[in-house]
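**User:** Everyone, produce a chain:

**Assistant:**
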Amino acid sequence: MFPENMTEQRKKLMATLAVVVNGLSDLPSILPAASALAIRHVSYGARREHYPVVGAALLWTLEQGLGDAWTPEVASAWTAAYDTLSGTMMVEAYGRPSQAAE
C-alpha cells in the first residue's frame, strides 16, 4: 500500500495531522477534506478494517511522543477527534456499515 521510500508519506501524514490540530475547534470545517481523503484512500487499497488499527497506532505514537503531557484529557480529545474523522471517512468511502459491500 505504501512506497518503499516513506519520506513523502510522512510529510503527508504530518500535514494532515496539522490540519486536524488546527481544526479541532471547528471540526466541521475539516470534514470536507476528510471526505476527499477517504475517497482517495479507497483507490490506495484502504479498507474499513484498517481504520481502527491506524487509530490505535496513531494514539499510541502520540502517547509515546507526548510522555507526561499525554493526560487523560488529551487522550480523550485525540480519541474523539480520530473517531469523528475516521467515522466520517468510512461513511464517505464505504457508506454506512449496513450498506458496506466489503
